[in-house]
Amino acid sequence: MKLATLKDSTRDGKLVVVSRDLTRCSEVGHIARTLQAALDDWAYVAPRLQRVAIGMETGSQPTMRFHENDAASPLPRAFFWAGGSGGFSGPRGSLQVADGASDITVTAQVAAIIDDVDAQAASADAKEAVLLVLLASDVSVGGAGAASTFSPVAVTPDELGEGWNTGDLALLVRRNGKALDGGETGRKETAEIVARNAAIRPLVAGSIIGTGLCKTSSALSIGDTIRIEMNDRTGHSIFGAIEQTVEARGK
Fold it and tell me: What's the pLDDT score for residue 163?
């Protein structure tokens, strides 16, 4: 199942189910108005959303065109993000930095949206708590976090198959259209990382955890465009793309 949040007049947008090929979506406000509302009651809501997803693929569910440019980050804000602040820019919005800023870097990684996790949870329980997977982009200026962004679409782990968080599917990062080989790091089981984050405190549904599978691009400049995505084993985009241009604030 693939989910997205379309921008509207509210801070948290509206939840939609997205087709596997990312071309169509279906509004599900009668099930859950926002993604956070769905996460708060996942055991009840997820099966209903799944039925919508199946109906979209079989043609029995009404749909409309899905445009990645209309999407906010799946969670426009979150209770907890292990990679930075809790308010996020859109996947196709500009990256605003101070005029004349230098030492601009972007770290692309795979992240997970989780269910409630008890403090000191076992790794097996932490694994069950991983509800959705998405891509994340963290921008730093001078070593300090400046912005966090997530892919247009978040997907349930079953969409990825086995081995997705150990490097089986590669992160693709391009600067101004040129592929970057920043070297992927991490390769730890996501369950271990979630359990580590819950070692001393519980985590609430809707928390976002970086998996440690990441790629860093350095020496970005104002005017550069960065694109981050991941393809499935047949070469099709899984999450849609984060594509942003670095711009001077106020320009």
Answer: 60
